[in-house]
Amino acid sequence: MRIAVDAMGGDRAPAAAVEAAVEAARLGLAEILLVGREDDIRRERERLGAGKVPVTVVGAEEVIAADDQPVQAIQRKKNSSIVLGTALVRRGEADAFVSAGNTGALMAAGLFVCGRIPGVRRPAISGVFPTLDGVGCLVLDLGAHMDAEPLNLYQYALMGAVYTEKVRGVARPRVGLLNVGSEENKGNELTRQAYQLLKDGPFHFVGNVEGRDIFTRAADVVVCDGFVGNVLLKTLEGLGQGIFALLRQELAAGWRERLGTLLVRPALQRFARKVDYAEYGGAPLLGVDGVIIKCHGSSDARAILNGIRVAVRVVRERVREIIREEMAAGSRPGEVAGQR
Q1: Strands 282-286 and 124-129
Q2: Per the CB 3.0–4.6 Å rule, which of 10, 105, 157, 171 could disulfide with 70?
């Protein structure tokens, strides 16, 4: 199995990606292809003392920055790590591509280079949100398509259920629809219509869930349109950062507080691990006709290594192929053959 890794994507590139790729090669997770500026990759490998570790370098001299416009960037920077990485998947020279780079550009490259799985109306950006039990909840869409239709949410649920069962190991995953209340008639026109489709789907639909229900894992998969999902994602990221900043301020206020910090540090460390995105690694762009894993933009080497592990499992469990089979069976309620 060959996994391509974007050496130039993310806030900590290329150091984090190169370190993760080297460790993945050492562990024998897969054959690793590092895509990026060859000189930068060489320097990082020398710094790590990993010159002899079997990692193949694929030269890509252009870099798509976090603030680049996605479609323009992939059109103008055809020699970028993101474009060349997705092209490796398209040509079958890599089984998957892992990147912490520009999310919009990664989705655009996935669509223009790899295309969509037949039958999928709109691919979705998925992400694993931390839960109190440490298992995590898959939420989609997180911003690929802002103006979703009911059928889009239905397909998100179908793809999310396949991924959660096959890769995350959750038997008969519960699917919820993000809404402002649990009652069937709650929400706007989109959610009310989507509810009617979802309740007839070939997955375990548990009805509407509210934002607070994500953290208690009232559902294993939660679907919403990209506008709501992206606002939810950014709000929760800011909330998490704010909570930890306040804790640091309060626990450093005086000697009593500092003493208390020593006592509660083990509990705080356990809590931090539960809500740390690095534990979940990355999540796939579901619906794209190729395995593309998006890691958090702030990913360190551990997070990207876990993203590589996710990629390996997505390939081994044939997630893309299973989604293709589901779509071929019928992408509309009532057309999908059988129950899983």
Answers
A1: antiparallel
A2: 105
pTM: 0.85
* Rounded Cα–Cα distance for residues 101 and 276 (Å): 19
Q: Using CA atoms, how far apart are residues 124 and 145, in angstroms rounded to an integer? A: 7
Q: What is the pLDDT of residue 134?
A: 82
Dist. CA 216–CA 193, nearest whole Å: 26
**Intra-chain end-to-end CA distance of the chain, in Å:** 28
Q: With the CA atoms of 20, 22, 25 and 26 taken in that order, what torsion angle do they form, in degrees rounded to the nearest 10?
A: -110
> How far apart, in whole angstroms, are the C-alpha atoms of residue 122 and residue 119?
9
Contact call for residues 5 and 16 (beta carbons, < 8 A): no
> What does the pLDDT look like over 62-75, one tens digit per residue?
999 989 999 999 99
Angle at which helix 301-316 crosses helix 319-329, to 10 degrees, equals 50
Nearest to 217 by CA among 134, 124, 125, 310: 134
Using the structure block, give the residue that is written with the tokens 């109190």: 132
DSSP string, 244-283: HHHHHHHHTSSHHHHHHHHHHHHHHHHHHHHT-GGGT-EE
